[in-house]
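DEPOSITED CHAIN:
***
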Amino acid sequence: MLKAFYMKTTLFLTALLSFCIGFSQDYNFEKQWSYLGPDKKPLEDKRQSATGIGPVEHIAVNERVQGHMLASSINGGLFYTTDGGEQWINAGSDDWAYSSSSWAAYYPLKENVWFANSALNNPNGSPGSLSYKGGIMRTKDAGISWELIGDYTSFTGSPYIQIFGIYFDPDDAKTMYVNTAEGLYFTRDCLADKVKWNRVQELKGWVYDVVFIGQDIYCTQMQHGKWSLYSLSKKNHDQVKRMEISDLWVDDKESITIEKRGNKLLILLNFTRKGDELHEYSPVSGKTEQVLKSQRVVFGKGMTFSVNPHNQDEMMVGYATTVKRWDIPTKSENRIKTGFHVDIEYIAYDPFDTSTVYLASHGGVYKSVDNCESWISYSKGLGIAECEGLAVAQEDPNQMAIGCFHDGSSVRADWDANGIYEWKNVNGGDGLVPLMPANKMNIVFTSNQYMGGGMFYSADTGRTRINLHSMNNTRTSGWLMSGVLAGENHETIYMNFEVPGGSGKGNIDVGRTNQPTERRSLKRVTNFKVSHEIEKYSIYCIYHTEAHPNTLIAHMIEHTKDEKGKNKNVHRLWRTDELDLADSLLIHSWYEIDIPRSDWIASITIDEKKSDRIYLVYASGKQGTQNTDEYPGLVYHLRYKKQRQSPKREIDLSRNLSFGFTGRYNIVSDGKGGYFIGTRQGVFYGDKKTLKGRRDWVRIGYGTPHCKVHGIHFHKEKQILTVAYYGRGVWRYQF
């Protein structure tokens, strides 16, 4: 019996060793990833109003210890500083199941105890849902270790619940309130080993903002599209009252936020279709007075609103793409200087220094130490760039370009030829897909959405640019921007654009040019209204693999209607293998290829040796989720028949890859028959057996953030893997 056990154990260990050797004979998967930045505001040749490092949603200033602050990033996670913002450090959120955070708070009596919310997906400017692994996080040792003290089951039981804020009772710090999209919750002991959560039963719907005045709590609430103000006693939560002043304003409101001014309540009304207003309410007299009208609270959802703790007659309010400072008694503006990123999400006064103010913006943290006369970016170490795309120079993989949501496009290069690589902003707006030819480091393509956007060409590493859409009298494809470089020397660019007129007007099609500096050189190479009688569609993304120079794949979103007449998007995939044809003939060469399901596609690549095989990654799959019987996969190996329209074989390669929104442009070949894929859970490698569905993916290294991947590049000669994250900038692994 012992002999049989010994033989089985030996066989198991041999098989395991063989498995490991099979994966590790060429690669070392046990190293740490390194961060390449940007870790501070990028350089600029000239000042741009939207250059930055990434969006910060909220700043918490510690009122006990000067210089201690927490900064929450909606996709990058939580960061802290102990020196007033001179240097920021990740607060440990990379180790959370979901590293996104939109709110954090210090425990009032202990500077090493912090609370923060963790969410799966944070949409622009608002908190995301907790899903199955997010919730209220707590650390008692300043971020060294964290614990989840309240998940979705602690609240309504719905994984779609959102958390808007965390507040402490001013008279009893252990009593903590959490306002959510499904009511107001509280605990009488937030430091307990097992925190018990209770709900204020009479408050339904959104509880958006919370303020304490005396023994009362004031809340802004929204249910069924109707906004209201509520008050309740701190001691007796059953005494909940809807305030009569709620009926003074029409219901055309996007949000209501509130601030305390002494023993009065300031109420900021963010209207949907008219100028926003600020009112002051006295709980003692029950009277309300209008302070401001015709405001424009665009960013921050009304949270760009703060009363100066050193001077209760002064407040700051967000206005369009800036902030304004007001003297409340005289209703007069005390102008402040600009110099910060134009999209402001939160305002925080320093409790110790009367001249210091902090702004949380889409470009990081900005600080004024001279009473708003000047502003400086205090974002060193934040590292929260929301990359939309990545391009890496083949000649020198240390040089690269990224497009960033909110913060334009930046190039990392050795600008002074001294061996030091730094990031420099080269194009403003919301940066999208960058491109770099394999053989010319000085050429870089950048792109941005709308507002003067398009695909830009530069022959001097981004210092000067030409807008290809403007050069060709075409409209930008906006957020759907896509482009690839093709040809032996990458001299030809294929990019999408909105058809300005004629056949297919309003559709988004593909054009090409091998003379990007020439006017009207972009020629249309798709017109599915003519070739396939499809009326309304958008080419969302195009894919090209260097090993197959004559092949292009296009992901189409067909805009149609269902049987009930409701708008419906159908995802379709088209392919051509005849890029050497003239433009007018190429339009008719496209044929559709079947895919596993109509859903958002993250990335596609063609097998380098066999053109009838493609690897398709969906933006999300349901493998590993709870409460569902459906398990559509995340990654597929599709082998097509000779006519290449229907798959001859379809293999779901998801295996051990967890559910999650993966991102875009997140699969790349290693040139040896294996592939790298980037996900929220890490970056993985699959060999030939993996690609046949016979072996799990192997995770590469450790230390990556829990963010979507929006760009992956492998330098085959130097064995360098570079990954761009939507929320944590660029990371690298050297094999």
In short: Residues 722 and 735 are 11 Å apart (CA to CA). Residues 1-21, 623-628 have pLDDT under 50 and may be disordered.
